[in-house]
Write a structure and sequence with these properties.
heterodimer; A: alpha/beta; four-stranded antiparallel beta sheet; 12 strands; about 35% helix; globular; B: alpha/beta; Rossmann fold; Elongation Factor Tu (Ef-tu), domain 3; 4 domains; six-stranded mixed beta sheet; binds guanosine-5'-triphosphate; binds magnesium ion
Chain lengths: ~325, ~625
């Protein structure tokens, strides 16, 4: 990996014509995210950070390390493991958590596990609902977390663009999009009733480009799956699916072939499409992203159903 | 070289350029259906922020639920909620992002519908600039004015008036000029330092990104051209340094840091600082970040400060430059926008959150509310949803603050309902009501406790309230006689007497009555500090002002004595002939006749002079003092 030489923090301010010091937009986004995290830690009783191992989680975790330095982030990480994540995600996760010395909780829906729920046998919708949405609710209830950080961004999707930074959920984890609290200035109302919880999105105002550029500037480690490499894939319904383990049933005419691919987004391997690419550096990834004409979510099999599908899932308690 | 060429030829150079772009946060606002969402959709579309898969979805959606027949309905790019798409209106703010060669933009598309005004305010509270749309066929509407007023109240200094749907008025210069003139007549009364008008068609794209071949008469920049060039740099770094403490960082016994976001100015190691509200002084030792210690922290940055002295600082305190520290007060004159269906309740205790402090606040009845259409100041007893008014507010402990027009971050607050936990109001502090309680408070060695101990009593205020002629002064006089006889130190502040001197300049309008009471309350507080039992005998007709007086004193010090004499009885006594004059119309604003008397709801002591002798009345007051431990039996 190549990295541009990092200038020292102080050289990074922009000096305007009037010799005033201004922050760059990334510095502003960073400061905003840190401010949000500190508010939550100060006012919530039992916060947690949802850590999904993807690039947005990587940035969010990095910001948490900064927000509380020299202390460690005063909350655990929670990974809702559907059992179908890429192997490389799990090993990356465990290495990083060990290196940073943080507490990691993992949760897999035990009933789903017992019933053998998976994307191949039950389809993407059922799998996502049981292993991801229900799994998350179980974990939040089990540990009584009242505030959970998530790495979602408003530029990802139309209904996300409508969501507040502090998003309230009923005791049943439901989101009421028509009745969101006004969110004024950067004064966040963290008051809630017993049983209610808050999802907090410190990266709300970041774009995909901001995330990559920040990863580049701050040299944040990310799962190697984001970089192009030869990987075994099969093509299904126009989507390249990586054969990550032998649980993937192959049809008679299917034969995994080695292709130079990478992933723009990471999730359950059977539900995450790869793109053919030679981008094996951060600069190349950013370049490819800027030149491509499709959105990152296109690689997610679950989002294709219908226009308002994300809003519906969120009302049901999806993160 | 063009930006997109740079991406393929020299990505490092592109990234460098992108990294140094400035940021502009703006909103679109205006009346319902003026084309706000369409305009944003158009901006995103033309700045190539829409991906192919999103475009395919947009084309399908447009056919299904769009308002444009077979054509693309750009509003669907931002109206992302199912209910919005069904109804064809915007309900809540959508935040979208795009960038040009020079700038990054965060745009909040806000709803035009009056019912959702609070969502518009949500968007406006963080905006540098507002694009205010007007439907060229409709001209300036009430909602246009409401949004302009809210934007200006929230300190949005730049407004772009986008006269939209020019395609539907034959791109007429005359129509455009009339609307602009009309709006300017209104806007002249507002504080909008920078106003610029552009004729556009959001639907057809005229003057949105490129110019318009139909409007050669307009020579200014397109909307995007304007947004790219406008100078919005708020001079936050030139403000005096402030940092509200969010979190105290104590990883071990050797490190104690104060984490927060700089809310104005610049801070450097070695700077002299004051911690508020305690007023303690220290120096900045380090500005700690994970990367390295900084030589300076600037407004907007999240940092962790350490000080050279061990002083007690907790969340909600403000660390500020000791040269020009913020003010400290517990009572404010504020502008409030009400955000809840439940009207504001003067006197009720709300939670109030400022940048990082949560306190209890009581709002007094509005001095007035503003009619957004005419900007007239109207009398008001409360504020309803979306109304804007001027209210005084008292908090349960002194807090550090700046006025909103000096500092948007240290001058703003929200009000939270204790039952529902909802954010019910947003407010801007104009000025403190008690300048005396500023940080430059002198700590005196001979304090209230010492004064009281010397006199062998607990100081208190006996606040006699009731109609003119109810018997306040007579009873107060008798009570004081008895206190004197038993060796107590007391003093009477009598309404009529004080109006001869200290309050000689005040009349009997509502405003003057409030000021009359405020001054007396302050004087009685000084007397309590001197250790005296202070008897105040004032009509003091308004509950809010009596509460104000009560709030000045410590718990248990304020004893409200309601001299409850019916109007008919007081009028029949008429010792000064004033009721007669008032009835004859020769005395205006007379309490009980043409000015209201608000009876106390929970007075400590109530005396009905109708069926009680003067001796019994005085006896009851003295007994009340004994019960409360003010004096011994
Ligand atoms: N002819 C014409 N129609 C337009 C123009 N701009 C918007 N419209 C139409 O006006 C209608 C309302 O547009 P929206 O963009 O939804 O209006 P809005 O201001 O966002 O409405 P709310 O958010 O609900 O207040 C839609 O049918 C648009 O297609 C324009 O420039 N010309
Ligand atoms: Mg709209």
């Amino acid at each position: 990996m190549h990295h541009a030489n990092l200038p020292s923090s102080n050289e990074r301010f922009i000096m305007s014509a009037t010799a005033q010091i201004h922050l760059t937009h990334l510095q502003r986004l960073e400061a905003e995210a840190i401010h949000i995290m500190r508010e939550v830690v100060s006012e919530a009783q039992n916060p947690v950070m949802l850590y999904s191992v993807g690039k947005d989680s990587a940035v969010m975790l990095h910001l948490a390390m900064k927000a509380f330095y020299p202390s460690k982030p005063p909350f655990p990480l929670l990974h809702v493991d559907t059992g179908w994540k890429f192997k490389e995600m799990i090993s990356f996760r465990d290495d990083l958590v060990a290196k940073l010395g943080l507490e990691l909780l993992t949760h897999t829906n035990p009933e789903g596990l017992a019933d053998g729920v998976g994307p191949f046998t039950h389809g993407s919708a059922v799998h996502t609902d049981i292993m991801k949405t229900q799994g998350l609710k179980q974990a939040l209830d089990k540990y009584q977390f009242d505030a959970a950080f998530g790495g979602a961004r408003r530029d990802e999707e139309k209904s996300r663009a409508k969501e507040r930074i502090f998003s309230f959920r009923s005791a049943q984890h439901q989101w009421d999009p028509k009745n969101q609290r006004p969110e004024l200035w950067s004064i966040y109302n963290v008051q809630k009733h017993e049983g209610e919880s808050i999802r907090v999105f410190p990266l709300s105002n970041w774009t995909e480009l901001d995330i990559w550029q920040y990863i580049h500037l701050e040299q944040i480690p990310i799962v190697p799956l984001y970089f192009a490499a030869e990987r075994p894939v099969v093509e299904r319904d126009g989507t390249l699916i990586m054969v990550d383990d032998d649980r993937m049933p192959l049809k008679d005419d299917e034969q995994p072939i080695l292709k130079n691919v990478r992933f723009r987004t990471l999730g359950c391997y059977p539900l995450t499409g790869a793109v053919e690419s030679t981008a094996d550096t951060l600069q190349a990834i950013i370049q490819e992203m800027l030149l491509t004409r499709t959105s990152e979510r296109q690689g997610r099999v679950i989002d294709h159903d219908q226009s308002a599908s994300m809003e519906k899932k969120k009302q049901e308690g999806y993160f | 070289m063009h930006q997109s060429d740079l991406i393929s030829s020299d990505i490092d150079a592109y990234l460098k350029a992108h990294e140094n772009k400035s940021l502009l946060r703006f909103i679109t606002c205006g009346s319902v259906d003026d084309g706000k969402s369409t305009l944003i959709g158009r901006l995103l579309y033309e700045s190539k922020m829409i991906f192919e898969d999103q475009l395919t979805a947009l084309e399908q959606d447009s056919k299904k639920v769009g308002t444009q027949g077979e054509n693309i309905d750009f509003a669907l790019l931002v109206d992302g909620l199912a209910a919005e798409r069904e109804q064809g209106i915007t309900i809540d703010v959508a935040y979208r992002f795009f960038a040009t060669e020079h700038r990054k933009f965060i745009v909040a598309d806000t709803p035009g519908h009056e019912q959702y005004t609070r969502n518009m305010a949500t968007g406006a509270s963080t905006a540098d600039l507002a694009v205010l749309l007007i439907d060229a066929r409709q001209g300036v509407l009430t909602q246009t004015k409401r949004h302009a007023f809210i934007a200006s109240q929230l300190g949005v200094r730049h407004i772009v008036l986008a006269v939209n749907k020019m395609d539907l008025v034959d791109y007429s210069e005359k129509v455009f000029n009339e609307i602009v003139d009309d709006f300017k007549t209104f806007a002249d009364q507002l504080d909008i330092p920078n106003l610029h008008a552009i004729p556009v068609s959001a639907l057809a794209g005229d003057n949105v990104v490129d110019g318009s071949r139909y409007m050669p008469w307009y020579e200014g920049p397109s909307l995007l051209g304007y947004l790219e060039g406008v100078d919005v740099e708020a001079e936050e770094t030139s403000l005096p340094f402030r940092m509200p403490v969010q979190w105290v960082n104590r990883p071990d016994l050797d490190f104690r840091g104060y984490a927060g976001r700089v809310a104005g100015g610049i801070v450097r190691p070695g700077d002299d600082v004051r911690v508020l509200p305690s007023g303690k002084q220290s120096k900045i030792a380090r500005i700690v970040t994970m990367d390295s210690d900084l030589d300076e922290g600037v407004s907007g940055q999240s940092v962790t400060l350490t000080l050279t002295d061990e002083i007690d600082i907790s969340r909600g305190d403000v660390i500020a430059t000791s040269e020009t520290p913020p003010e400290i007060s517990d009572q404010f004159d504020t502008t409030i926008i009400w955000l809840s269906e439940e009207p504001m309740l003067p006197g009720r205790s709300y939670r109030m959150k400022t940048s990082s402090r949560l306190v209890s606040a009581t709002v007094n009845a509005p001095k007035h509310k503003t009619d957004v259409n005419t900007l007239q100041k109207l009398p008001a007893k409360t504020l309803q949803l979306n109304e804007i008014g001027n209210c005084t507010l008292a908090v349960d402990r002194p807090i550090a603050f700046d006025s909103y027009n000096e500092n948007r971050q240290t001058g703003s607050f929200i009000l939270i309902d204790r039952m529902t936990n909802n954010t019910v109001g947003m407010g801007m502090i104009n000025f403190p009501l008690r300048r005396a309680a500023n940080i430059h408070w002198q700590n005196l060695d001979i304090n209230k406790a010492a004064n009281a101990e010397q006199k062998g009593q607990s100081p208190a205020v006996l606040w006699f309230t009731g109609l003119s002629g109810s018997g306040k002064s007579t009873i107060a006089n008798e009570v004081q006689r008895r206190l004197f006889a038993s060796g107590r130190h007391s003093f009477i502040l009598d309404g009529d007497n004080v109006r001869h001197g200290l309050n000689r300049d005040l009349g009997f309008t509502d405003a003057d009555r409030v000021e009359n009471i405020r001054r007396v309350a302050e004087v009685s507080k000084l007397m309590v500090d001197a250790g005296l039992i202070t008897l105040v005998s004032f009509i003091s007709p308004f509950r809010a002002e009596r509460d104000l007086a009560r709030n000045l004193m410590e718990e248990g010090e304020f004893i409200e004595i309601f001299v409850n004499t019916p109007l008919s009885v007081a009028e029949s006594r008429d010792p000064k002939g004033l009721y007669k004059k008032a009835r004859a119309g020769n005395l205006r604003n007379f309490t009980g006749i043409d000015s209201p008397y608000e009876a106390p709801e929970n007075p400590e002591i109530e005396i009905n002079t109708d069926d009680m002798s003067l001796e019994d009345a005085a006896e009851r007051v003295i007994n009340g003092l004994i019960e409360r431990g003010i004096i011994e039996a």
